[in-house]
Amino acid sequence: MAGIAGISANRLELLQIADAVAREKSIDRKIVLQAMENAIQKAAKSRYGAENDIRCEIDPKTGETRLTRVLSVVENVENEATEIRLPDAQRRNPEVKIGDQIAESLPPLEFGRVAAQNAKQVIVQQVREAERDRQFGEYKDRIGEIINGTVKRAEYGNVIVDLGRAEGIIRRDEMIPRETPKYGDRVRAYIYDVRREQRGPQIFLSRARPEFMARLFAQEVPEIYDGVVEIKSVARDPGSRAKIAVVSKDSSIDPVGACVGMRGARVQAVVNELQGEKVDIIQWNPDAASFIVNALAPAEVSKVVLDEDSNRIEVVVPETQLSLAIGRRGQNVRLASQLTGWDIDILTEAEESERRQKEFAERTQLLMDSLDVDEVIAQLLVTEGFATVEEVAYVDLSEIANIEGFDEGTAEQIQMRAREYLEQQEAERDTKRRELGVADELAEVQGVTTAMLVAFGEHGIKTLEDLADCATDDLIGWTERKKEKEAEAVRHKGVLDGFEIGRKEAEDMILSARVLAGWITIEETPEEETEDADSGADDASANV
Hints:
It contains 21 helices and 17 strands. It is an alpha+beta fold. Among the domains are: 2-135, 2-Layer Sandwich (N Utilization Substance Protein A, Chain:P, domain 4), CATH 3.30.1480; 140-206, CATH 2.40.50.140; 372-435, 5' to 3' exonuclease, C-terminal subdomain (DNA polymerase, domain 1); 440-540, DNA polymerase, domain 1 (Orthogonal Bundle), CATH 1.10.150.20. The protein has a five-stranded mixed beta barrel. Strands 1, 2, 3 and 4 form a four-stranded mixed beta sheet that branches. Helix 2 runs antiparallel to helix 4 (113-139), helix 5 (210-220) packs antiparallel against helix 8 (265-273) and helix 9 runs antiparallel to helix 11 (331-340). The longest helix is centred in the last third of the chain and has 28 residues, at 408-435.
């Protein structure tokens, strides 16, 4: 680029400079010539006045430079720098008419030191922009690929990688911990983003993402590349440990064995690339419980209890297996949770037994207080699976009567007491709701109970309009995830926390309130309204 300063060079040199820059930067020669024309135009405007419309043309074959001043032909001149009257224009060219443009030739510029420096800056800037556009166009469709490059330099922990015709960056948090690449080292990385930026890098690479490991396995295992073995999910603790779930579409092929390879050759190649990261290869299973048990390997599991509504699972392990199941600093259970998509609670057999006893005692006491029965009867009811007063009140009478030691008369008496208790509770809640100033019309909303009305009143929701104005997350709460990987997610409670209602039920409530309030009509599609209800929810869900 040093020769670019000499814009006043002869014609041949000008073309040679353009050719050299085009080759060096891998961009079109026309772009370089255009940059030179813009540089000469800028210098000419500073010489003759910025208000003038000055054009520059460089002949791509001969290198000849032509400078012209363009004037518009008008009836009345308002700006002498860019306009000319028709009679004056016709003296130069008799055929011109109003609306045409005429060009005046200007003498060639002799560049001084300052002008040459300014011209060089213009050219460098435009060439750089053209180079960045070429890089973006070349790599924007390559997201998801693994690419090889050479370490060019390190800046504040970030590594700049030379990709041949472009540069990429591996940010500090996308590197494998304790990995310190040096200048000239060969490096493989995953392209996770390519975006147009005014300055700085445009190609973003990663060695820490799960997708990088998945791609490495696809390169090493032909069965994955061919689609016979599928990678279902990957969880990584970069530089330490990882878990990968695989499944085979061909029953004759063992997916785990295919990934391990002969004498572990395939998995070892991946481990070496990941700086010794230990990899657990797990067979995926459509049954969630079996899959989670596999994911917690090498720990042995005694029992699992799934709660599909909250997407949680309780895993019971022997006392001797507890530390193995949890892993160092909770690594094993954390990776298993990421791999399966379930929240996993690990309990020992003793803890699980203690908790069950506690639950049994609490439910027994609840039934004793609400039904006014002795401990033995309450225990019998809990043993048969009755956990709440509602279940006792509205279950088929025969289910209570069939309990050993009960008859039909006893069952009728217990059920009557349960219903009386619920009616009393309902009346108390209704009184409290009225005291809080909650409107009667809110009770007409689909799915709303008296207990919910009290909760609405305690949180300032007292009219249909108040409920209609809510977002889904306002009702059910949301989880805020921090940028820091180690930071714990923060749970923000909603108005109806503890009522065990899902997102769909909350959306239906808001939709029903909007219909009753007259904000929307029943003919409007529920799907559209649901999206509207969630527009605020997405903003509120601070997954930052």
